[in-house]
Amino acid sequence: MKNYIKSIYVLIFAFGALQSCTEEEITKLPVTALSEDAFWTSEDEVKQAANALYGSLSNVGQIEWDALTEIMFSQSGASVEISTGAINPGASLVNSLWTGQYATIRDANWFLDNVDKVGLSESALAQYKGQVRFFRTWAHYKLMYQFGDIPIVTKLLAINEGQVEPSSREAVLNFVLSELDGTITELSSSNYAPEYGRVTKWAAMALKSRILLYEGTLSADNTMLTESANLASQIMSGGFSLHNNYTELFRPEGEGNSEVILARINADLEGRYHSLGQWLGPISFHASWTTYSPTKALVDRYPDINGDDIATSPLYDSDMPFTNRDPRLNQTIFNWNEEVDYEGSMFVNNGTWLNFRKWIDPAETAEQRSHIDFIVFRLGEVYLNYVEAMNEVNGPSQDLLDLINELRTRGGKGAAADGSDVIVPPIALAGLTKDSFREIIRRERIIELAAEGILYYDYHRWNWLETTMNQPAVGVVPLENRVFTAPRDYKWPIPDFELINNPNLKQNTGY
User: Fold this and answer.
1) N or C: which end of the chain has fewer CB within 10 A?
2) Where do the RagB/SusD domain residues begin and end (predicted)?
3) What is the CATH number of the domain that holds 246?
């Protein structure tokens, strides 16, 4: 299975980007023992170097970021440190973000500084550079989004060159957008036909659309929002289509479907598995841990079957909270009022946490070794980028609402207990305003993209964290008291060790 991408993992070598490698694995990988002149001699070696950057692509661990919002509770200390207000310059998630992204930047710069030595054709060179530039660009954006002013690094630095002046947030954003334009151009070659799992121009366009939506929201910049929508529109016309089953989209049988724009491939190789099912599953499912669990706040975000908020819905019954609801609720979260045989795997309510059904593969064995690919970009998100951006610029329209209703309809496909479709009535345009449609769109992003690890950015740019993250996290019972200090916590502290290493950096306000 997934032989098409196995080479990425067979050929990966010991870059700093490979943070998941064990010491034993690293000692078996030869490249760091080679001199520069001995390595850059063939296209195979260029491919190895480009492949290594795929180790930095978001994987299932990205889900933990949803625990920094109201929708998820985490038992992991890294995210708990943030969600309970104990964020500090030594916090593990703060440090891992800074060091991990700069490791990716270093590895990309090593590639870009050396790849011209091999003498590839202009077309081949562009295709490799485009893939690597994508990772370097995204790493800069992640750093900028969380830390503000950061050093832009575009070459491999010597030991005595590490004290780089930070660039303003605006300058970093301009760099990121310009680099993405170059990446899109480099990956637009007509003879570039990569296998599933590689970065394409569509992935670069999806990233730029996402970034422009985020930044356009933060700055109320309609120019950025319009460009975000234009990129989304191009992707929507690029041959992608919604997968016809929401549950299946996040299970092995949905891998490689036409909705996926970019996925992190978890190849079926020894030692290349993850334990996502064990992290999310109930204790009754092969003794899983429930490391990450949905909250009652997420459950309450799902509307009734007609799209009405449950606070005002005549259909909602608090004693039967999963009845007459948007069918994605049942496909994302187990009904804690029922104990069910989930395709041969028993779900038993543990009395404390709610449990995700999304991403759970009931066919997994007791060893909990999963190879489910992690979706990085998909058409469903692109729909929502387009609709949100266009609503902010022009207000609601039937065309925009049709895309929301298409997602809602897809959520009902095969969603009944017997596998038949659940009919989901469309939301009507009549009476919608920009403000009321905005609330529908935001709700739709939450319930469509839950447990995909990107909702923190939405809650952040909507300025929702200061209210939602000062509320207790509740599952079946109260789980965690949360604290968010605004405006301080909207920007993370620069790690202490980096302030010592680079005196040009200044600590962010409040830390």
Assistant:
1) N
2) 286-511
3) 1.25.40.900
